[in-house]
Design brief:
Length: 267
């Protein structure tokens, strides 16, 4: 009888857990606008977005205004606190998880931000993708578990992800990009302002104008290195390392991977 009771209890617990997961999933089907707000602010100022697990997307417009829209399911509405703060120099947006919820929370969360075309962006998310398009300024992006996309940006660009890929399409930018577990792809146009690329477990692919000038340091510990631009004053040239000038030399182009290939090609 004791064994039967124990068996029935286990079955009941399994059913309850299954129902909880089904309910959580049903609450995750429909997304809605959780919170939105506009801020009047001059171009060239700054926004700082921090998020405990969600995607963040930035796009430009021709207004002296920042518009923030948070989209998510019911679980995202119930289990996060959303904090907006601002002054004449900076806007702060925080999406913070409330305590006391576990694995089966089924959170769907996205923060969409429109900023003036010339603006500075600082973003950190614990578990989502970050996308920035068409913005000129200082751009600093960090995610613990997602991909980073940068498109048509100019200025200083810093990107770091612990578990995703980095894809950049840009011009006239100083770039620092690193990932612990993904690939890095850069399609670049314009003058070299410096480029440092590093991955621990992926490939690096860089496409450049034929007249791109750089002091190149390209290396891999577990793949091949290739560059089809004109090389001058070459210090080292092997299957795993190239050190020398591309065309006339200039600011650094550094690309390093521990477990993949490094490819630098002219467009």
């Amino acid at each position: 009888m004791k064994n039967l009771s124990k068996y029935l209890l286990i079955v009941a617990l399994i059913i309850v857990q299954s129902l909880n997961q089904t309910y959580a999933a049903s609450k995750g089907d429909d997304k809605k606008v959780i919170k939105e707000k506009s801020f009047q602010i001059a171009e060239g100022k700054k926004i700082n977005v921090t998020c405990d697990g969600g995607d963040v997307v930035f796009t430009p417009w021709d207004k002296s205004e920042v518009y923030v829209k948070i989209i998510g399911n019911d679980n995202a509405a119930e289990k996060y606190d959303y904090i907006f703060e601002s002054n004449s120099e900076e806007i702060s947006v925080k999406a913070e998880r409330k305590g006391g919820w576990g694995w089966f929370s089924n959170i769907s969360l996205k923060i969409e931000v429109k900023v003036p075309a010339r603006f500075n962006i600082y973003t950190n998310t614990s578990g989502g993708d970050i996308k920035v398009g068409g913005v000129q300024g200082g751009i600093y992006l960090e995610t613990s578990g997602g991909d980073i996309w940068g498109d048509r940006f100019e200025g200083n660009f810093y990107a770091s992800t612990s578990g995703g890929d980095i894809n950049l399409f840009c011009s006239n930018a100083k770039i620092e990009a690193s990932t612990s577990g993904g690939d890095i792809k850069v399609d670049y146009t314009g003058v070299n302002l410096g480029m440092e690329l590093e991955t621990s477990g992926g490939d690096i692919e860089v496409k450049l104008p034929a007249d791109f000038d750089a002091k190149a340091n390209l290396e891999t510990s577990g793949g091949d290195v290739d560059c089809n631009l004109t090389l001058n004053d070459v210090k080292r040239l092997s299957e795993t390392e190239i050190i020398g000038n591309i065309n006339k030399g200039g600011k650094p182009l550094s690309a390093s991977t521990s477990g993949g290939d490094v490819s630098v090609y002219k467009k």
